[in-house]
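Let us work through a complete example step by step.
Step 1: write down the sequence.
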Amino acid sequence: MPDLAVIIVSWNVRDLLRRCLQSVADSLVGSGISYEILVVDNAGGDDTPAMLRAEFPQVRLLEPGRNLGFAGANNLALRELGDRGQGTGDRVPDSAQQSPDGSAQSSVRYVLLLNPDTEVVGAALPRLVAYLAAHPEVIAVGPQLRYADGSIQSSRRRFPTRLTFFWESTLLERLWPGNPWARRYHCADRSAELEQPVDWLVGAALLVRGPAIARAGLLDEQFFMYSEELEWQWRLQGAGDTGYGSRIVYLPDAVVLHYEGRSSEQVPAGRHLHFQRSKLRLARRMYGALFTEMLRSFLLLGYLWELLLEAGKYLLGHRRTLRRRRIGVYLTVLRTRLR
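Step 2: predict the structure and record it as tokens.
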């Protein structure tokens, strides 16, 4: 088995995936690191499988035939690695309805979860691998993410408190962008240019030790999209008895460009639903049912307010095509009651 397995989950971003795969190869060439790449095509409609077979025959293509979501598709690849090796059985959370027990890793030392809308810059991947090799107390490491224009993308996080759930990525944050709860959550009190331990990292590019995955288990497939990497890194840090520590580290010396949201932006209503449902599922996992219902009511009130604002702008004749689209999204969310 190779030292490194790179797992990429793709949905309708063929051209970005092509660029991503080439950047991975360029980053690892001459590094001495043996690796393989597994791409899971989540039943997109852009002929990604044909492109891979024609241009990247060395890539292992997995086609589940339906959209498994981010967690489910990564788990499919992790099980594929486990089925081919001699690793011990993994443990998955009892709540993961679609994660039957199986082998989560084999003899692969490191597993990189990488978004298809990323581009690895220079020797970022060898630097990440070398960091884990040199720091046995660390179970996962991630690079500095940057937007296409080179500006730094926020990717460092602390675990959310109760107030974080109300103040981060909500109407309240738009009203008070510099609120202390969201700032703390985003590690805004620390320089993004310094290496540092974090609670968790945005999962666009995350390198994890294979033994830590075997201990913590697969991603929880109840999170179709969003929050799954947070919950997973929460569990990974309980994997200290694998012989390694439980620290997760942000390494700015390694840089990856992230063309954020190129898949999810194709389905705006679905993006809102998946984001908020995952947020509520995580809140229930961390703080219980009563807190979750309070948060649900708050989020729905926020969508109702947004709906009224968009309806008013529509009636005034302001950018009616945009207002109509947003009204449709907010109505869809409100009809579901986020359940």
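Step 3: interpret the result. Residues 4-154+192-262 form a domain with the Spore Coat Polysaccharide Biosynthesis Protein SpsA; Chain A fold (CATH 3.90.550.10).
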